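note to self — DONT lose this again. spent like an hour looking for the file last time. sequence + predicted structure for the chain T wanted, 582 res
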Amino acid sequence: MVPKIRRGSRTHGLLAYLYGPGKRDEHTDPHLVGSWDGFAPDPGRDPEATLARLAAALDLRVKQAGIRAPAQHVWHCSVRTDPGDRLLSDDEWNTVARRLVQAVNLAPEGDPDGCRWVAVRHADDHIHILATMVRGDLRRPRMNYDFKKAQAECRRIEQEMGLRRLQPGDGTAAKAPTSAERFKAERTGRPETSRETLRTAVRQSLAGAAGEGEFFTRLREAGVRVKLRHAPSGDVLGYSVALPGDRNRDREPVWFPGSTLAPDLSLPKIRRRLADGTPEPVMQDDAGEARRDWSAPAHQRRRATTIAERAATALDEDDDEAAGQLVGVGELLDALAQTSPAATRAELGAAARAFERATRSHIRAEQADTRAIRSAARGIIQAGGALGRGEDGGATAMLLSTLVLVTIAAVRWHSARGHAQQAAASRQAAEHLRAAYRQAATAPMRTLRDQGHTLPEPERRRYEAAIRAALPDPGTRAGAEPTHYALAATLAQAEQAGHDPETLLRKAVALRELDTAEDVNDVLVWRLRRLAHLPAHPGDTSRSTSGTGSPNAPANRTGVRPTSATTARPAPPDPRNRPPRR
């Protein structure tokens, strides 16, 4: 149940809208479901009642107060149920209205001098409460924190009436689009409002940015109009953004200051974030990865996986300083959403938008060090778009598997502090990441399972014994699952690269807990491949012995056959066949 509060000065004008057809003929059967005394004239059901008569009754005390009445004397609150809720009767809506006007101190129960109010219903799922803010003793009601009080009362009503219980807010959420903005998006055929599009563009431009200048440059390169606000000294005080072609009725651009897009997108807070986490230089050689001829997107995704593991560890430590890591994870998701292939881009964009809510709370790490994770986001941006196949696709699946665990750690971190909305946003982001992971991991995991099936029976039994020894808990024993073939194939390739499979598997299990993993086998596969520096694409087994492991690595005795992706590499293009430069 969502209350939305506004204030105005035209009682008759608001009544005309509430009893009218609506902006798009969406109002049906407008009528009163409650009033201050239960006897207010109802123009919707009483043929003798008029809007003027009802407005006069509501404004009686306003006129009596004269100049002592507030200029904005109309209090307007719309209350809407969730689309999945049952339909409330008129009597139930009357109860809702009476409880809300009492909660905000407009008409306390038993107070004969309470303000006059009416509740109008013109749709199945919501009502509008209109009150005039002058009491019977001609004093103004004390209306401090009316929005918070209305929200709290709605949470109690939801519980008592069996409605969907929304999460209590803490004032750190981004401003939702207005009805006018949503209607404009529908008229112009846009999938979302300008406010939402600009918020995403600003966040993506900020992901991994090294400084303020780079941030504004990225914004302009993304096709966003940018207007800076300068002090007389020439210093930049703030900024506003607009979409090209988005104009108001006066044909002027519709500008949105950064602070109105989200509380953490004002220029002072952006500067604070850049100061806390200036990205480290993007390293091309990380844990021996530069010895591979993998692509830059694959390199940076593997590097980001290691850094994301550290962020999850920081969140598990239950320290308030981990709040900075949440901001960095949000930037990492924004970077992935920009550079991932089309197959996973939609889910990653949804995950980034959901997790955006989890990055803001009243807890701010005073000494947040987000340089490493912001550097990972920067590296992903600089590496460019990743392919959805080969090493790029495997590295994407490896990173997404880790990010699912990071978002689950964020759920626990927020839940421990009572951040209900942030915890719910983290859960939603985890679901989108799981969907993106399933898309990215389908091909590499299928190849690994096929390779596991080709292992000689004695080899496979040896690896299964190692798996059972490393995972003694029957509830998580991977060897009992049909997908253990992928894990066995990975252990075989690690042994071929010169690693001891049992030692490596124990190290992978000890990295982090596995209770929250949707598929323990998948999580361990990616941990093993990262620890052993194996290619993320399982077909690239021929490269696994190049530059890693023991110099006296044993020959291939595992029966894992390299696929055609490793043996048939495309020849480099002939420079003579290049098209002429224009």
